[in-house]
What we know:
single chain; 480 residues; alpha/beta; Arc Repressor Mutant, subunit A; Aspartate Aminotransferase, domain 1; Aspartate Aminotransferase, domain 2; 4-stranded antiparallel beta sheet; 18 strands; aminotransferase; DNA-binding; transaminase activity; WH_DNA-bd_sf; PyrdxlP-dep_Trfase_major
Amino acid sequence: MPHDTRFRYEALAELIAALVRDGTLAPGARAPSLRDVARQQRTSLTTALQAYRLLEDRGILQARPQSGFYIAQASALPAPAPTRPRPQPTEVALSGLMLAMLEHASNPRYVPLGCAIPSPALLDSGKLDRMLARAARLKGAAHNTYSPPRGEAALRVEIARRALRWGQALAPDDIVITCGATEALALALSAVTQPGDTVAVESPTYFGALQVLRALRLKALELPTDAHSGIAPAALDAALRAQPIAACVLASCFNNPLGCTMPESNKRAVLALLAQHRVPLIEDDVYGDIHFGAERPRPFSALDDDGQTIYCGSFSKTLAPGYRIGWVASRRHLPRLLEAKFAATLAAPVLPQLALAEFLASGGYDHHLRRLRRLFADTLRRMAEGVAEAFPAGTRISQPAGGFVLWLELPKAVDTRVLFAQALEEGICFAPGVVFSAAGKYTHCLRLSGGHGWDARLQQGLRRLGALAGAYAASRRTAQ
Ligand SMILES: Cc1ncc(COP(=O)(O)O)c(C=O)c1O
């Protein structure tokens, strides 16, 4: 029998997840008390609590204040099936659909289910803008210069301080401030790859990362991905044995668009495999702060003793997409990252960095994040209910435990590229599935963004989109 490499709490969490799956623990019911679980399983209260926190992160349990843990209400629709992309590297095509979607991102004419951008109304923009104005007023002329190549020290110190909370020991000097996570990904990839190389990615994956691969003339190898647990170490192992892979790009948690998060034991197994094959990992953690469970899932770099991980983050999903500030961090690859930064954009703009540094230092960020997490969790729950009511039979939906996007798998007959054009005609924007694959897969899937929060307009847009999808599916059935 293979040796079980899981931690005790992970094995315990799996045991409880199995009881939920087979119906022994019913949705909505109170979960067994931590004390009972610890006694029955002959383990400590701390291990039982760790197991419950993990189940909370995976959306299987819900913690209710002063009341304990409950089995989460099951979604009315099943989760998307695990994906099975082609096992060959693919050149990434330029997607006209993606450009069309971005074009409509800030057009108020459309119901905003398309781009994964938080609504400005939900962000603490007023406070941030005041800090920017203050920095400009007090020392504007002195700041009208280039930042140091790594970026402003005050911001790097704040980023490093926050990272310590989830076990990531980042030194401020190992951080390079970038123009959003997009530039962070581009710098990381150009630091460790050459044109023509192959990069392993989740499938589906964020279309912006695919476009960075395209710009750097890299090929994408899409890996099979599970809607809950992300890529399986065994699939990565097979891919690493089958061909040379120059780097691997993975979400730290709540992948865009599937919403999956790899369990920590799988993250460790992936790190061990990559270390064995000497392949650097680039992790994208833009959604990490939007966790619905009590604790932020730990990124790969917090588990990586070998220093092979390059970490990419940004403030775009929680605070300031318009400020375009992100960061990339790695001690081992720092010289190459700095070279790449210099060649790409020389330095990041000074005033937005100073405003963000002051915002973080002033202590309001955690309060803001708590509000945002509640709001997005509630929005996604209502959207999932709306989808269950309005979309055609056979629709499947993701159940992310963080972030603010949902992935829908529609009946195979529905081509979401056609649905996209129909929806735009009716003033509704969404992201067609095909943009999330280098190989043009997922033509029957789509992604919905809840970044604008729940309101009557979103509700109506969702209903109308469901009706359009239903009519499309019915017309295809009649045609066959
Ligand atoms: C997974 C992921 N990474 C990176 C980005 C880009 O982030 P930024 O706006 O900071 O460049 C996005 C934006 O949608 C994203 O979803």
